[in-house]
Batch of 2 targets.
Target 1
Amino acid sequence: MSENLSCDFPRASRTLCHDIRVSFEFFPPKTEAMEETLWESINRLAPLGPSFVSVTYGAGGSTRERTHATVARIVRETSVKPAAHLTCVAAAREEIDAIVQGYWDAGVRHIVALRGDPQEGIGSKFRPHPDGYENSAALVAGIRRVADFEVSVSAYPESHPESASVEHDIDVLQGKIEAGASRAITQFFFENDIYLRFLDKVRARGIDIPIIPGIVPVQSFKQTARFAKQAGASVPQWLADRFEGLDDDPQTRRLVAATVAAEQVLDLVDHGVRDFHFYTMNRADLVYAICHLLGLRPKLEQKAA
Ligand code: FAD
């Protein structure tokens, strides 16, 4: 049920483990105000020394320029390693390859490679671009052909909404690894058992790359429940109960959110997990507090502007 432990008894989460690694996910900002919030968050979280920070790629490639601009600014202005998300939706291979080459030229060495959602929306059938990469494994192989990138991919502890079975999801994951992926980041989940069972199944198939749990701190219960529905992640009743009646009480909501996320990550630490990927929603405070509980302390100097 658990990965190897290095400080494991009696409860690893009660000792300050020094082998915790975190990464943070951001989305590219749409407005100047959102850009300001994003950079405040990056500057607050960067000193915690994340393994990398990743920037998402909007559905259908809608944020191509903004993703690139955000990632390039991270390279220029911070000491953290960026990872650019990329999908193969609505683009020919040549276009994708040019984007990938552009990242390499900008100093980016890590890409999170995803197939992406169908253009007609989640639930419809994915149709690859006629000259495009047909799936995520083909995209991974394409990226690796352009240059020697580190490539991360997705994994789905509760199955992808299109999936016939968890076994099929693991077949797809295996294909992405054979194409050159060296890390998987999971869709978010709230029941740790779901992740731990998935991990057991993945390991039983001989897959040994890191399968990093994706953690979403609940900034807004309604919004998180909406995302979860789209992503095929279950929202347990106990979670709904914890946020009941707090829609108009942001102060209590934040305290409850911190407690819920802390409970989840500390339990994972007790099960031997040492790597965490946080879906930050571009907000630092909750994630910073959880990282503090995990034993992380500020350490990196920012590059001079
Ligand atoms: P894959 O891993 O290739 O496939 C997912 C599942 O779909 C498979 O396991 C399988 O069950 C099913 N499937 C795929 N192909 C087939 C097939 N041919 N036949 C039958 N079943 C099939 N989306 C964005 O637009 N931008 C982002 O930046 C972004 N970042 C993400 C980051 C993470 C960590 C995760 C978990 C998801 C992210 N997504 C993002 C969402 C992702 O694009 C969607 O979930 C998409 O529908 C699947 O892409 P994938 O690469 O995960 O698919």
Note: Residues 56-57, 59, 85, 87, 112, 114-117, 135-136, 154, 156, 160, 162-163, 168-169, 172, 185, 187, 214 surround flavin-adenine dinucleotide (CB under 6 Å).
Target 2
Amino acid sequence: MKAQPTASHFIDGAYAEDTAGATIEVIYPATGEVIAVLHEATPALVDRALASAARAQTAWAATRPVERARILRRAADIIRERNPDLARLETLDTGKPLQETLVADWPSGADALEYFAGLAPTVVGQTIPLGRDFVYTLREALGVCVGIGAWNYPSQIACWKSAPALAFGNAMVFKPSEVTPLGALQLAEIFVEAGLPPGLFNVVQGRGGVGAALATDSRVAKVSLTGSVPTGRKVYAAAAAGVRHVTMELGGKSPLIVFDDASVEDAVGAAMLGNFYSAGQVCSNGTRVFVQKGIKDRFLDRLAARTAKILLGDPLDDATQMGPLVSAVQLDKVLGYIATAKSEGARLITGGGRAALNSGYYVQPTVFADVTDAMTLAREEVFGPVMAVLDFDSEDEVISRANDTEFGLAAGVFTADLTRGHRVIGQLQAGTCWINAYNLTPVEAPFGGSKQSGVGRENGHAAVEHYTQVKSVYVGMGPVDAPY
Ligand code: NAD
């Protein structure tokens, strides 16, 4: 199986290569096979990418918003037409099953392009009357924005960052995760085909060093990162040196609270979606499932029965429900967390080991019960199909335990009592919340974290704030009243 792109990078409207850059092997996680070999961007290529973005951005910002919108909408149409091929490539890049990549990855990217295309012409300023004089405000583009992606939703992340950036008149230089570099190149091709002028969306490949070079360049106005909290701290600090704007979409250890009046089937289904979709490699997963004692046994019975039926297999097979983890590194990390959970006394309900399928990086969907707040499994982000079930008695108790974490990305509540649902959500420290649902992230709704889980928001009208800046213009309508 091969998925070798034309070249490693896409700069100024065309593919670019420099074999002097260190190699990046792209591995199909279901077999361990090398499907493409790319090169990291050299400093000269990073410079070319930033220079072409800076060149193209001024004219783009001066283009009528409806014209920018038309191009983005065309790109969304092309994505939808090619979704089957794009989904297959996403599956090869990430190991996620076609069942997911056909409906979740590129389609949500197309939604973002369509949404921000619609929003672009509506972004307007204000007029502030001051008697004789007045002030008007303009919402202007920031300039050159850098996007740095994680490997779990590589193409969705490329779209979620580039759509608002481009819609509001910015240029973007995007660095995908070195683990999943392929999808962003397809997006670059699609943008050109849709009519986007060269230089406005460039892709440079590389590891952290290339990301750091981008985040510290004086031509860059904003850095938007999706990644882990430790990387977020570094990138935030690097951006701060140049007082750059940032959006930080980081990790989580989110609580999903199930009260004993909840529908067991719905709560179990949501907990499974919120722990096993994408083999658990989703930032907003509800990885601390707090279950009220009165419903605990029924919840665990149904959870064990339904989890045992999850179909692991070849991600390219339409029937497969769960694929491998993205890499050997991630496999070792997740197996390490499972071993620690066992040694710290968590009770294994199902799963608990590697799944022997080809030579892929498969882990069985795993559930631990009787997890306590102090266990490593309840404190650290695992990023694999490992669910921790914790017990609780009262509402006040569960709220304070749910908030006892450095993270604040997401939270969910299952209850038949709507008043309680809103009351509890109102007290949870998290940027993205659900009541009687989990992990649905439509582009219309702002998405992002509080506490260590991030800064800024993607999607929704909130993204306007993060990809534009306000200029105030005071207009004097009479003589200047100077005391000298
Ligand atoms: P990571 O932090 O290892 O890497 C993220 C990106 O940062 C990669 O492209 C990497 O090359 C780059 N990078 C690393 N060091 C850098 C540096 N010093 N300067 C600039 N760039 C640097 O994360 P990952 O393992 O790719 O992804 C998993 C993490 O992402 C998880 O913690 C997950 O929760 C988080 N995530 C968050 C969201 C969200 O929206 N909140 C979404 C998806 C994933």
Note: The first helix runs from residue 43 to 61.
